[in-house]
Specification:
Elements (H helix, E strand, L loop, with lengths): L1 H12 L11 E11 L4 E10 L6 E2 L4 E4 L5 E5 L5 E4 L4 E4 L4 E6 L4 E10 L8 E5 L8 E12 L4 E4 L6 E13 L6 E4 L3 E4 L3 E20 L56 H7 L15 H7 L15 H6 L16 H8 L15 H7 L28 H5 L17 H7 L15 H7 L11
Antiparallel strand pairs: 1-11, 2-9, 2-10, 3-8, 4-7, 4-9, 5-6, 5-8, 11-16, 12-16, 13-14, 13-15, 13-16
């Protein structure tokens, strides 16, 4: 009955109704979808993506929750793109054909999908699902609400047009719903709840999201201030057990567990629970930052177990160990190029200062516009001549502004392509990103994507 009254009030307010987020909560993703009065479930899945991932057809309304690496979502029908940073989310509309890619190494993300009870997932590995329910139908507002709460903070959430899915990422929370039975959730767990919710964070605060089915937004159904609401009685249903998820994606039915013993090491990463609490790592996940190195090993070698790229060179820590680069040094071979640039952009060896062995370091070759992978590059055969008044005068301000006034080795837009390479590629020598797609011309040319096509990426 409560959910029905809230639904009527929301319809009366229509699209101008209030946000479901209250207090410290904020809506981080929102969409509109047709909700059917059929048996439905909230489902949670984990999926991994990387640059160049295959397109995905979206079948049902869903939210994507950011991981540790920024995510790029491209709508292949419209060409629109959006970036999802850690702590952010995005809504995916049924019928979209999308591509999901990371800005860096492969990473894992979370899918919260609202789909028919007998349907299969659009993507990913199922981590758990709610009990079956029949939502209130209509074209409805769907919201993903994120809350970062202080210790023992209370947050309220009104009843939606169906159960609200709550997932916690840090700390612990106690949720009280329609049945007045408090349920405690710990980091990595989730459950769907009926009716209005009261959520209290634990002694160390908490971070969690709530996937919420909101108001009908059809303008034709918007009431007027003088209209008398007509309440449709909801058909009572049997209690629906929510699904509590553990940190490892797998169908889970266990109830929330008690706090861990300080001396234990349930994830086997070599750190006790007390040490993990001090560091802020997850005691149930051996590799908290998902960089390929267990938390205990990160402590031993000096990398940050909460940061997948400790030195900030755009090359994740685990990858650095595989390639024998130093995860604590931005430029392991000291050739003027960062390890991430060498690994993902130039194709040079991040542990060899002169990849092609021609006597000129890779960074210098990039600066000069020669090929650091080709020892027989004709330009490499020429000795390096220090600029002198007779040999090669410094370019004037006019020459810097007008590439045609000087030789081919100037780079007035600073994108890493000298003018002769810009001319060969057809790019604008005065615009570092000719097609405006967020990737500079040099990276596009080096990686083989089209620097003149804003939909082409490395």
């Amino acid at each position: 009955m409560i959910a029905s009254i809230v639904g009527v009030l929301a319809q009366g307010l229509g699209p101008a109704g209030p946000s479901p987020a209250q207090g410290n909560a904020s809506v981080i993703a929102q969409g509109v979808a047709q909700i059917q009065d059929v048996d439905t479930r909230w489902r949670i899945a984990a999926f991994s993506v990387q640059a160049g991932s295959e397109p995905i057809a979206v079948r049902y309304p869903a939210f994507v929750l950011g991981g540790t690496t920024p995510l790029l979502i491209t709508d292949l029908n419209s060409g629109t793109r959006q970036r999802v940073a850690p702590g952010e989310g995005a809504f995916m509309t049924p019928g979209q054909m999308i591509r999901l890619e990371t800005f860096g190494p492969p990473d894992q993300f979370t899918l919260l999908e609202l789909s028919p009870a007998d349907a299969s997932l659009s993507m990913g590995v199922l981590g758990g699902e709610s009990g079956s329910f029949v939502p209130e139908p209509g074209i409805r507002d769907l919201d993903l609400i994120r809350t970062v709460s202080a210790a023992e903070d209370d947050t309220a959430l009104d009843a939606g047009a169906g159960p609200t899915l709550v997932q916690i990422s840090t700390g612990q929370i106690t949720v009280t719903s329609d049945d007045d039975t408090p349920v405690t959730l710990y980091a990595g767990q989730a459950q769907a709840f009926d009716g209005p919710l009261s959520i209290e964070s634990g002694p160390d605060g908490a971070t969690y999201v709530a996937a919420y089915i909101g108001a009908v937004i059809e303008f034709g159904d918007v009431g007027t201030p003088d209209a008398t609401p007509v309440t449709n009685e909801a058909t009572p249903s049997a209690p629906r057990p929510g699904t509590v998820l553990g940190s490892t994606p797998a169908p889970a039915t266990a109830q929330a567990t008690a706090p861990l013993d300080d001396a234990g090491d349930p994830d086997g990463d070599g750190l006790t629970n007390a040490q993990e609490a001090e560091l802020g790592t997850d005691p149930n996940v051996a590799d908290t930052d998902d960089d390929g190195i267990d938390d205990g090993e990160e402590v031993n070698i000096g990398t940050d177990p909460l940061n997948l790229d400790t030195d900030g060179d755009q090359f994740y820590d685990g990858g650095e160990l595989i390639r024998d680069t130093d995860p604590l040094v931005i430029d392991s071979d000291d050739d003027g190029l960062t390890d991430g640039n060498e690994e993902y952009s130039t194709g040079t060896d991040p542990v060899t200062a002169d990849t092609d062995g021609d006597g000129i370091e890779d960074g210098q070759e990039i600066e000069d516009g020669t090929d650091p992978l080709d020892a027989d590059d004709p330009a490499d055969e020429q000795p390096t001549i220090e600029p002198t008044e007779e040999a090669e005068p410094e370019p004037t301000a006019e020459e810097e502004a007008d590439p045609d006034a000087d030789g081919s080795n100037l780079d007035p837009d600073g994108d890493g392509l000298v003018n002769r390479r810009e001319e060969a590629a057809g790019t604008d020598p005065l615009d570092g990103d000719t097609d405006g797609d967020g990737v500079n011309d040099a990276n596009e040319v080096d990686f083989g994507s089209d620097p003149l096509d804003e939909t082409s990426f490395p």
